[in-house]
Task: inverse folding
């Protein structure tokens, strides 16, 4: 997706994991994914460099669709669609 | 799809390696893996009720002289304690913690009640070998 498309996504669930280091953001994503419906879009906010690698790989393994990452000031917004 | 299996042999009872084991368990939990943790010799001491939650009673595997700095960094980074990592992983996926019977005895733990609630049972080495043979991922820490 383009930056503009990512910015305009309708996000059902925003997970703010900027206060935690690895493995916090991945576990926060894991817990939050159970609270949304298939097809819903979730974003994970993380200041941890490893998360932007971990979440796409996790999506591949779990079957969720990784949509892209936006780099903000000091953190990342990582988007995915639940399978 | 059947869940992948991890077999984690936890020989170490040191703060740094227990923390590493906790982080690895978290990753396994995120992937819905089924994990068998086998607590071997030194590890069993850390699981004793009177030891687990007290960092003062646990040493470091490496850089022992930097224990204070290590603990302070964990606190600043809001990293969970190793016990909290284990608890969270157990809540999220199937994690069974088996205490090696011999190891337990070495540290004065005869019964499962002598160990923290994280521990599920006391086992023999055969259970570990079987688990290691069947696992997709086998780690020794």
Result:
């Amino acid at each position: 997706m383009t930056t503009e498309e990512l910015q305009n996504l309708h996000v059902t669930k925003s997970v703010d994991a900027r206060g935690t280091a690895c493995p916090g953001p991945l576990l926060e994503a894991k817990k939050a994914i159970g609270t949304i419906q298939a097809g819903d879009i979730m974003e994970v906010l993380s200041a941890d460099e490893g998360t932007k690698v971990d979440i796409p790989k996790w999506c591949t393994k779990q079957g969720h669709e990784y949509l892209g990452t936006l780099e903000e000031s000091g953190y990342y917004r990582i988007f995915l669609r639940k399978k | 799809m059947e869940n992948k299996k991890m077999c984690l042999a936890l020989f170490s009872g040191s703060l740094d390696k227990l923390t590493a084991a906790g982080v690895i368990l978290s990753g396994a939990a995120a992937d819905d893996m089924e994990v068998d943790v086998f607590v071997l010799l030194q590890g069993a001491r850390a699981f004793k009720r009177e030891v687990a939650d007290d960092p003062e009673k646990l040493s470091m595997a490496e850089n022992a002289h930097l224990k204070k700095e290590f603990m302070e960094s964990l606190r600043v980074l809001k990293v969970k304690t190793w016990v909290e990592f284990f608890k969270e992983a157990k809540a999220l996926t199937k994690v069974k913690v088996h205490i090696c019977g011999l190891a337990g005895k070495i540290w004065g733990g005869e019964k499962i009640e002598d160990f923290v609630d994280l521990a599920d049972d006391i086992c023999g080495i055969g259970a570990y070998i079987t688990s290691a043979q069947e696992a997709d991922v086998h780690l020794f820490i």
